[in-house]
Amino acid sequence: MDKLTRYSLETIWKTEVPVESIEAHAVICLVSEAEWITGHFPESWKQAITSVKERGLFNGSENQMFTIPVKQGNSAATLVLVGTGEHPMSAEELRNLAAKAAKASMQVSADQVVFAMPSSLVSYSATQDVATVAHALTEGFILGTYRRKNYKQNQKAYIGPGKVIFHQEKITIPNFQKEWEKGMSDGKAYAEGTIYARDITNLPGNMLVPEDLARAAEDLANKHGLEYSIMDEKKLEKKGMGGLFSVGKGSIHPPRMIVIKYQGKESWDGEIVGLVGKGITFDTGGISLKPRVGMEEMISDMGGAATVLGVLEALCITRPKRNVLVVIPTAENMPSGGAFKPGDVITTLSGRTVEILNTDAEGRVVLADGMTYAKELGATRLIDVATLTGAVVSALGDVATGAVSNDETFLNSFISASRRTGEKVWPLPAYPEFQEMLRSDVADLRNSTGRNAASSTAGLFIGTFADGMPWIHLDIAGTAFLTKERGVNPKGATGVMVRTIVEWILSDERVV
C-alpha cells in the first residue's frame, strides 16, 4: 500500500575514532552540568565552546538546548548541546531528550547525525543498564523525527535524517558494544512499529476505507511472510458475525474481518496472545449522528487496529518465540437507509443478542465479534485496543490510557511494562454493579448504559465476550490522537500502546 511508504532511518554504532572526524551535518552532544565545567571537548570545537561558556548561554541543566556551528570532519556542522542536568536520568527522560534532539537536527535539515555520548552516561542513568540506555535513545530519536504526511502541492525535499551514528570513545564496561547494539535494535523495532501505526491512523478517511485497511494488513503480512485471511461482507453474514455486519451495512464501503498470525513457536498451540483492534475507519456516529465539531478527528477511530498492526511490525523485527493472533473487525459507521438504528436487536457471533440503544456505541459491537473469533481461532489471552469512549477522555484526558480487566495479575504485568515504555495506563473499576447496568429487557445485552461509569461499562461489554478468558481492554480514545505534540508524541496520531504491548510480549517471553 504505497500510502504507507516511508523512509527508513539507519542506526549504527561507532567507536575508537575521534567524534570530530566523523562526517555529519549535525552532532548531538549530551552534557551534564559537571561535564560542562570539567569536560574535555574536541580541539576543533574549543573556540565555539569557549565562546558559549564565556557568554553564559548554556550550563548543562536538564533539557537545556543550544546550537552552534562547528567544524566536523571536512566540513561545517551544527553542534546541538543538550543538557542532562545533575541527577540520574530515567529511561523516559532519555527518550524525551533524544526526541527533542532529533527535532533540533531536523531544523537544520541534517541528513547524517552523530549522537555523541559522554563515557559516564550509562553509569549516570537511573537504570545503569547499557541496553536500556541504547533502547531509550534510539527509540526517542526515531520517534522524534516523525512528521505527519501532508498532501500539499509543493512538497519539501527534506524528509528527515537518513542515518544516526551513536558514538562513544572511551568504553570501560564489559560487552558494551553487544549490549548497546541489542538495545539499539530493540529501540528501532519499537519505534518503527509505532510509526507504522501513526502513518496508517493519519490517513484521511477517503484514503482508508475497510477494504484499504484490509489491503494494508495483507501487504504487511506478505512483507513478513505471515499467514492471514480476510472475510468480506458475504462471508461475515454467512458466518453469523451480526455485530460487525450490522455496523458496516450503512456504508457503501462494506466491512471486513482481518486475521493475521505471527507464529514464533514451532507449532500453533499452547499460549496464544490474541490482539483485537477496533477498525472503524471513519465514525460519523451513524443514525445517532455526532456533532460536526471535531468529527474530522474520527479518521483516528481505527487507532486500535493501527496499534495491533504496529505491534506485528515490531514483532517481525524482534522475532520473539511467542504466538500472536491479530484480529481486526473493520467497518465505516455511516448513516443511510440501510444503516443499523436505535432499537434494533442484533445477534453476534457468540450467539448473544444486543439491543442497540446508540449507534455511536458501535466499536464495542464490532469488537464483540472480534473477541469471539479470536477465541475460536485459538487465543488463550486477549487484549483489545480501541478508541472507545469520550468518557475516558473526561477521566484521564489525553495523558493516560484507561484499562479494564478480569485478571488482576495479567493487568499488573501489563502496567509494569507500560512503566518501562513511558506509556501511562490507568486501571478502571470493573465492579459487578457496572456489569448489571448492561442488562437489557429485550436482549442479552444493551450497547449503551448512558454517561454513568461509561468507560467501565463499555469495557465490560467487550469483556463479556471473553467468557472468563484472561483479558485486558485498552481505551485509547484520549491518547491515540493529540491536538499538539508532547514528548516523543507528535500532533495527530501517536501509535499509542504499540511499545507497551510489544514490551509486555517480550518480557512475558522471558518469564515463560
Question: What would your notes on this structure say?
Answer:
With 512 residues, the chain is an alpha/beta fold. It folds into two domains: 194 residues, Leucine Aminopeptidase, subunit E, domain 1 (3-Layer(aba) Sandwich); 309 residues, Aminopeptidase (3-Layer(aba) Sandwich), CATH 3.40.630. Helices cover 37% and strands 20% of the residues. Strands 7, 8, 9, 10, 11, 14, 15, 16 and 18 form a nine-stranded mixed beta sheet that branches. Helix 13 links the parallel strand 15 and strand 16. Helix 3 runs parallel beside helix 5, helix 11 packs parallel to helix 15 and helix 13 crosses helix 16. The longest helix is centred in the middle third of the chain and has 27 residues. The mean pLDDT is 94.
List the helices and strands and how they pair.
Layout: E1 10-14, E2 26-31, H1 33-38, H2 46-55, E3 65-72, E4 75-83, H3 91-107, E5 112-116, H4 121-124, H5 130-144, E6 163-167, H6 176-202, H7 210-224, E7 227-231, H8 233-239, H9 242-248, E8 256-263, E9 272-277, E10 279-283, H10 303-318, E11 323-333, E12 345-347, E13 353-355, H11 363-376, E14 381-386, H12 390-396, E15 401-405, H13 408-421, E16 425-427, H14 432-436, E17 445-446, H15 454-464, E18 471-475, E19 481-482, E20 492-493, H16 498-511
Parallel strand pairs: 1-6, 2-4, 2-5, 5-6, 9-11, 9-14, 10-11, 13-17, 14-18, 15-16
Antiparallel strand pairs: 3-4, 7-8, 8-11, 12-13, 15-18, 19-20
